[in-house]
User: Fold this.
Amino acid sequence: MSELTIDTAQKILADVFAPWVQALDIRVEAIGNGEATLRMPFAPGVAREGGTVCGQALMALADTAMAFAISGAYGRFRPMTTVTQTTNFLRPASGVDVVARAKLGKLGRTLAFGDVILSPPGAGEAFATISSTYAILSPSR
Assistant:
């Protein structure tokens, strides 16, 4: 199986993901072996009044990170769709970049399960934890 590189993952993000996800300016920092680390820089466009990053942007970051953790396990991008995403918001993400650390728990033939932790760069208390299930689609879809 080939290895998915950061450069290739960043190209997939630009070529495959929706323009509004691309507008979040997400950067792939690490990928491989069923794990991925992505960073979403803080920007006023993703914040509510007072500088708190909105939940929709955080959930999109988590969803994108898990898609790359799954792709990293395959060594390439595979078509997939989110089946469930359960998000527990723990504290506000205010005025800082948000780092998503995604880890694949189980990769089956048609389903994948994993978790994401959203936190500030470096060490810090998590903003949110996310558990997700994805359906792996056949390449013809």
Observations:
- The longest helix spans residues 55-74.
- Residues 6-136 form a domain with the Thiol Ester Dehydrase; Chain A fold (CATH 3.10.129.10).
- Strands lie at 27-32, 35-40, 80-89, 98-107, 111-119, 128-136.
